[in-house]
Design a protein that fits this description.
The chain is of the alpha+beta class. Helices cover 41% and strands 11% of the residues. It is built from six helices and three strands; from the N terminus they run ααααααβββ. Strands 1-2-3 form a three-stranded antiparallel sheet, with no helix packed on it.
């Protein structure tokens, strides 16, 4: 039987997350060590991200995470330690590997757009800006965006 925690954080996801988490800090003044498992707090954070509910409405008892304040403190601690940035890069690396295995195209994609003047034409206008500048967004494989003028226009 699967629990809510297993549904929110499957074993495959937890295998990615667990090595990225920092070690638990030593309790100040000889206090007790953390009683709430990291997986439960991570499941609560995933729940909050999926449902967009306020922290005070977090079902802490069902998730076994103590209280919403506990999860919020761990979220803050992990964000400052760069866990979510590292997790994002790890997921992108895995997706890139799967894409190469399946032979997906790795060429950068271009998106066209027009710069709209917000002056006298208003936000709903279709006119381009007064200088007629049309640009394109170039996305490189490294996921960084750079702006380049459209030479074809």
């Amino acid at each position: 039987m699967t629990t809510l925690i297993d549904d929110l954080v499957p074993d495959e996801l937890w295998a990615l997350v667990a090595p990225l988490l920092p070690a638990s800090p030593r309790p100040p003044y000889g206090g007790r060590y953390r009683a709430i498992p990291d997986r439960n707090c991570f499941a609560a954070i995933v729940y909050m991200a999926r449902t967009s509910t306020p922290w005070r409405l977090l079902p802490a008892r069902e998730l076994g995470c103590g209280s919403p304040a506990t999860c919020w403190r761990r979220l803050t601690e992990w964000a400052e330690a760069g866990v979510f940035d590292a997790l994002h890069l790890e997921v992108l690396d895995r997706l890139g590997e799967r894409g190469r295995e399946q032979g997906l195209d790795q060429h950068p994609q271009f998106v066209r757009y027009e710069v709209v003047s917000k002056g006298r034409h208003g936000p709903g206008s279709c006119q381009t800006n007064p200088k007629g500048a049309k640009r394109r967004l170039s996305r490189s494989a490294s996921r960084q965006t750079s702006w380049a003028p459209d030479r074809a226009a």
